[in-house]
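USER:
I wish I could look at a protein chain and see how it folds. I am handing you a single protein, as its sequence and its fold in token form. As I understand it, each token names a local backbone shape. I hope you can help me see how the letters and the tokens relate. The protein I mean follows directly.
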Amino acid sequence: MSEEKKITAITNGRLIDGTGANPVKNATVIIEGSTIKKVEKRLDIPKGATVLNVSGKTVMPGLINAHMHLAGGSSGTGPSPYRPREVAMFKAADDAKNMLASGFTTVKDCAGRNAPFLKQAVKEGVLTGLPRIVAACCVMSQTSGPLDQAPKAAKSRDARENDEAEFLICDGVDECMKAVRYDLRLGADFIKVFASMSFFHPNHDSLSGVTFSIEEMEAFVKTAAQVGKFVTVHSQNRHSSKIAILAGVKTVDHASRSDDEVASLGKTHGAIFVSTLAYLRVMLDGKLASQASEMIQKEWDVSVEAYRKVHDAGAVLAAGTDSFGDAREGAMEIELLNKYCGFTPMEAIVAATKHGAEACFMGDKTGTIETGKYADIIVVDGNPLADIKILQDVDKIKMVMLEGNICVDRGLQT
């Protein structure tokens, strides 16, 4: 005899369904088990359902951070050579819990060894209270690339030679194919590739160049596609973004220095651009040496300009942060897209819901409140369309539901 699925009805809320459609007043969302059964205005409540009356509040899809790192660093920083790996893992788990508590039901970890282990621990029931994790595991870099800082030490830092390493060095089509397969063996859900240098790199003056050829990039894409996986690239110039899009890459992350041609090309080929403004804003608002501040300000300026071009071209953009586990930055990204990049509040929310799900290759499962999708839902005290910053106030996130389970309840049922 099969167990009956729990039925929950969320009633009388202002519904922002994540599709970009106008909000619906007094909407009812019926949830059966882990999925959304029905969404309409003033639905009849099924007998025996648990009813959540959210009058005066907003019902939204769970938020999605489409580019971050569960690094387990101190105070949201990157990995530290002075912090034992085991301690970093505990910190990463705690950071992930804070993200779920802040309304983020899915996070896309764009390279790091912690994420696949955390995901497995959740699957086995060892950890609870974490968001859904989509993990890249190791990142691909080529010899002399942004992560190969000392060629003589490359083997000791390559993940195939050192369990602590977080990247794979590969050159040529055959090595790129094999690196993808190795990363999949480690538990990657998608493949992360450095398509350009990084503006943080000591040789950032070479930022206009590309790292992998289009043949190598196609090898990443085709090998991943053979097992239903996709490729994300780090790209901080127009040339690397163009090669990635032409090679069939799914998401172009950072995408700074993208011009009108790149934005149009992305739209034509169905690529998704992923913004990462929050980490830049946090650094600019902190106390930095003038040289570092100038470098970061320049990256901020070219990023804002690029996302404006993507928006104006009608291409798809998802909201990321490039944060190292700081839960506050996810909702900050939504505000920054609205404040600086020409996105309306609704468009910025769509970037962090529907388009975020698409950037995780999960657009058919989550990201919007529609029949048949996972019941990944948050309830917000207030109207984010009137004040987008309320999504940064954790106390305003009254409920967080992941696949039909209420994971966070800040007084909604009392």
